[in-house]
Design brief:
Elements lengths: L19 E3 L4 E3 L39 H14 L4 E6 L6 E6 L2 E7 L7 H13 L2 H13 L22 H12 L7 E4 L16 E4 L4 E4 L10 H16 L3 E3 L2 E3 L3 H7 L5 H17 L1
Helix pairs in contact: 1-2, 2-3, 4-5
């Protein structure tokens, strides 16, 4: 038997103690006339050597985020009711990626900050509409809620400031001009240059020149465009494109989010230098990849 040793139960012998002669279940005193009771073999457990035991390894740090599973499941059920397919919901304590979601093989994968687990029902409904349909009004509601609950975000030692002023191009000046010219001043987003890489990356095949976060209401422009040889109208086109994402949310169809629906493409061509910017990008994309 593994881990067990069966041995007779023995008694330590003492000086001058009578020796026992074993018979058929009977022990008789040799040195004396007194008859002793028979001794029966018993089974005892001998522990394994400590070195042979499995080492119990405990994590060096304890988890920092404790999620109420009932609240998580309740939110997941709401997402399932609004999405035509399976839903996998994860709760995070991220500081910048407050809400992320994607559809992969018909499954909605959503990652949501824990502040939404005890949010007001109206905020939860906005979250469901934003994740499942890309609702623009819901995005604004979520942005206001996140601003009001910023104290619940994980603290960092240092936050990088948003810098719109570049060496060659002023993003804020471009943003304000485009906002008045094409949107009537209705776009209330932030804008900044993206982070410059600290090390030289390997040869790349793609480059993301701009991005927009609907939750943070933040436009970021790739620092590769802050070059003297990059024309102002092209940087303005990238900013205008990202501003359109603030105004026209993506549409969902067949389990996917279309970030550039027909309305978006139609409005994009309204930009004064649209054709010129597209042509410049085609001719200089190689140089942008190397920069």
């Amino acid at each position: 038997m593994g881990g067990r040793s069966v041995v007779p139960l023995l008694y330590a012998s003492r000086a001058n103690a009578p020796r026992m002669a074993r018979g058929k279940g009977l022990a008789v005193a040799v040195a004396g006339a007194r008859t002793l009771r028979p001794q029966v073999a018993a089974a005892i457990r001998i522990p394994e050597r400590i070195g042979a035991q499995l080492r119990l390894v405990l994590p060096s740090t304890s988890p920092r985020l404790f999620v109420h599973e009932g609240a998580r499941q309740a939110l997941e059920r709401k997402l399932r009711a609004a999405f035509p397919g399976p839903v996998i919901l994860s709760i995070t304590d991220n500081r910048h990626s407050i809400i992320t979601h994607r559809v992969q093989r018909g499954i909605l994968h959503a990652r949501v900050h824990h502040m939404f687990l005890d949010a007001h029902p109206s905020v939860v409904e906005a979250l469901v509409r934003y994740v499942t349909r890309g609702d623009r009004d819901a995005s604004a509601t979520l942005g206001d809620y996140i601003d009001a609950n910023g104290f619940r975000l994980a603290r960092r030692k240092r936050d990088a400031p948003l810098i719109p002023n570049g060496k060659h191009h002023d993003l804020l000046a471009l943003f304000e001009d485009l906002n008045e010219r094409y949107f009537g001043g209705a776009v209330n987003a932030l804008i900044a240059w993206g982070k410059r890489p600290t090390t030289r990356a390997a040869k790349r095949k793609t480059i993301k020149l701009g991005s927009y976060s609907g939750v943070d209401r933040l436009i970021r422009v790739h620092p590769a465009l802050d070059r003297a040889w990059v024309p102002r109208y092209f940087v303005a086109y990238i900013v205008y494109h990202e501003m359109l994402h603030h105004v026209i949310p993506g549409s969902r169809g067949l389990g996917r989010v279309n970030l550039h629906p027909p309305e978006f493409k139609e409005r994009e061509r309204v930009f004064r230098h649209f054709d010129r910017a597209i042509d410049w990008e085609k001719r200089h994309v190689g140089r942008l990849l190397r920069s």
